[in-house]
Design a protein that fits this description.
Elements lengths: L1 E5 L5 H18 L8 H4 L11 E7 L2 E12 L2 E9 L8 H15 L4 E6 L4 H9 L3 E6 L7 E7 L2
Parallel strand pairs: 4-5
Antiparallel strand pairs: 1-2, 2-3, 3-4, 5-7, 6-7
Length: 155
């Protein structure tokens, strides 16, 4: 059974999942010294505000997924660090996390949500497209991976 829990973004489960996420990004990008930057991943503090959220998904009490929501500007939320570990993929967990974060965005008064992804995260891109996200910007990063900003208007 999968359980979603509100937890601190700097807690042990969140940090463990973030390390797995970084390992995936390094492996797929081929950039062994890739280091996370605030612009892409935000900081742990970004999810501590009253209108923010940090959710960790557990499968049989093991952390297998996470994601956060923060405010970008009035009416606009941003989903960050959404990740599902390999053993839990293919179970609809990514979709469940995404929809939960979108519901939190609505509760926080956001009319739209944005997120940043990259084509190397094939599974994530497919999920976002299926869930109605539209591309609003592409950013070439020279040596780094292509960044794609997506946005969705919330009901």
């Amino acid at each position: 059974m999968i359980e979603l829990r509100d937890e601190p973004s700097g807690g042990p489960s969140a940090r463990e999942l973030f390390e797995q996420y970084m390992a995936l990004v390094r492996a797929r990008s081929g950039i062994e010294d890739f280091s996370p930057v605030e612009r892409i991943f935000a900081t742990e503090d970004a999810f501590a505000a009253d209108d923010a959220a940090w959710i960790v998904a557990y499968l049989h009490d093991s952390p297998v997924g996470c994601g956060g929501l923060r405010t970008l500007s009035p009416g606009v939320g941003e989903i960050k660090r959404m990740f599902v570990a390999a053993p839990a993929r293919g179970r609809g967990l990514g979709r469940r996390l995404l929809r939960t974060l979108e519901a939190r965005a609505v509760a926080a008064g956001h009319e739209r949500v944005r997120l940043l992804t990259t084509p190397m995260l094939v599974e994530a891109c497919a999920l976002y497209e299926a869930e109605g996200y539209a591309e609003i910007e592409r950013v070439e990063q020279g040596d780094g991976p292509l960044e794609i900003w997506l946005e969705k208007r919330l009901a």
